[in-house]
Amino acid sequence: MTADTSARLLALLALFQSRPSWSGTELADRLGVTTRTVRNDVERLRTLDYPVEATRGATGGYRLGAGGKLPPLLLDDEEAVAVAIGLRAGRGIAGIGTASARALAKLEQVLPTRLRPTVEALASVVEHAPENTDTDAPDPEVDPAVLRTIATAIHDVEWFRFDYRDTALLVEPYRLLAWKRRWYLVARDPSSGEWDVYRADWITPRTRTHRRFAPTALPDEDYTSFTMHRVASSGWRVHARLRVDAPAQAVLDRIHPAVGVVETVTDTTSVLVTGADSLDTIAAYIGMLGMDFTVESPSELRPLLRTLAERYARA
């Protein structure tokens, strides 16, 4: 294959990626060749495992089908720089950090010399503040294969079977959300109809079911709000129940909805159920309520609060 032919095949792939379909005449005009050459180039791509599909008739033409090899990404200068910077940021996201680093290494190997100073300049001056500042626990590790398995079940509308902290579950999967450096699955129990949220780092997928289901709409259809509310009540490693000497609305005005669920008791008291990845984190944060409260559970929280109180008193 000559250099001219190779360059033309890359140009042909670029055209296929720019819009869904092309006629043979349009491709010939764009490439400056005959329609016969286009047909020959299409056959060359097919021998390289690129699934170029052809349709006949007055509106016939060519398009790049699904499957086969991943076509080379032909990026303009701005796109290449944007992808490089995005991949650098992706290195800090649990579950895709390693893959982002590998993809970035491959991209940097083929970056044109003229673009390297721009990418290096941006990388040297852009800083990322710590994201995990609300807990003393390390970021959870999520296997990228687990995320792919969950996403596939959602996309294919299939029942999803998995072990969740030693409990076997079967659910209808609907959404996969990333929040505060964690991944969550929103799903529905097909037998009870109950909706719930599951942390991806606690999920171990089992054999694929290949069993499709008829989707059911989530009440209010707000997956993000539902996830934040469920995480507050059950999605943390530890939880605490506090009786607060203040109306429920006053407590709600002081907390983030993802870290607490508030229940009204009387006009002047309420119950706050809050969670975190450690009791130390809960002990530190509930003092920021600025309200009197009583610990109902767990009992292990009380000595931590006494230690903090003594430390503050000494200060």
Number of separate strands:
11
**Rough outline:** elongated
% residues in beta strands: 15-25%
* Main CATH class of the largest domain: Mainly Beta
Low-pLDDT segments = none
| Share of helix, binned | 40-55%
Main sheet overview:
5 strands, antiparallel
**SSE succession:** HHHEEHHHHEEEEEHEHEEHEH
Tag the structure with descriptive keywords.
WYL domain-containing protein, 5-stranded antiparallel beta sheet, 315 residues, alpha+beta, Arc Repressor Mutant, subunit A, SH3 type barrels, 11 strands, 11 helices, WH_DNA-bd_sf, WYL_dom, elongated
Could you walk me through the main structural features you see in this protein, from its secondary elements to its overall organization?
The structure is a single chain. The chain is an alpha+beta fold and 315 residues long. It is built from 11 helices and 11 strands. The protein folds into 4 domains: 3-64, Arc Repressor Mutant, subunit A (Orthogonal Bundle), CATH 1.10.10; 77-125, no CATH class; 144-234, SH3 type barrels (Roll), CATH 2.30.30; 238-314, 2-Layer Sandwich (Alpha-Beta Plaits), CATH 3.30.70. It has helices spanning 3-18, 24-31, 35-47, 77-90, 97-110, 116-125, 144-155, 223-234, 248-252, 279-286, 301-314, and strands at 52-55, 61-64, 160-164, 167-179, 182-188, 195-199, 203-205, 238-244, 260-264, 270-276, 293-297. The strands form 3 sheets. It has a 5-stranded antiparallel β-sheet. Strands 9-10-8-11 form a 4-stranded antiparallel β-sheet. The model has no long low-confidence stretch (mean pLDDT 83).
